[in-house]
Design a protein that fits this description.
Layout lengths: L2 H83 L3 H82 L4 H14 L3 E4 L13 H9 L12 E4 L14
Parallel strand pairs: 1-2
Helix pairs in contact: 1-2
The structure holds zinc ion (ZN).
Amino acid sequence: MTVQQDLANLQKLQELDLKTIDIRKELEDIPAHIEDVRQNVETIRIILQKEQKRLEDAEGWKSDKEKEISLQSDLLSKSKGKLQAARNEKENKAAQREIDTIKKNISDQEKELMELMEAIEQYRIAIDEHKKEFAELEEQLKATEDEGKARMDEINATLSETDGGRKSLTQLITPQTLRLYERVQRKLGTAIVQITEPICSGCNFGMLPQKFIELQRGETLISCPQCLRIMVYTGEPIIDNGPIDEE
Ligand SMILES: [Zn+2]
């Protein structure tokens, strides 16, 4: 394989790689995107669990309060009975005091019960909202997964097509040159630079005049000393006066 053939094939390879660089990136990004949506679903799931627990606790307290109020109501009936049965002023006063205390108790408990019921109502509203949001996000996740999978299949199909062409192309390139290309391509995204002046168009490195003449001759493979990109001379063809040192 001559240097000229290598350079021609490397340029074709570069063109092919640039065409697939975006879809390769896209292919890598799809699983991360799906994971993001899955995390959102997970976040809402955790919020919902906490809210359900809070609701259960509040309902437990509510039930306790109701039992307590019912108990106090029984006590109140008994005290009312005592009041009716009071035989003297002293018993009457004692029963009345008992009744007042119990009524105060019941009133306090009822106030707390009301607050609990309001809280429960708020929790239920929040849970309903988050359930709705959860269902929507789950749907979104399902759609994202389906779309992602379809897109990945599509990209993989395209890649296996181009990879076939790529493989046969790489077989036409000197292995050592191909390795250099692959290394620079992976690192910098482009491994071939077209040169018309003695400056690397990849990194602006100024070439030695001697090297530039060598490049123009196209007999040796020239790689930029700074960025390692492989240089291809695309300026005016030069009139070859033979090697400089023969003058
Ligand atoms: Zn360079």
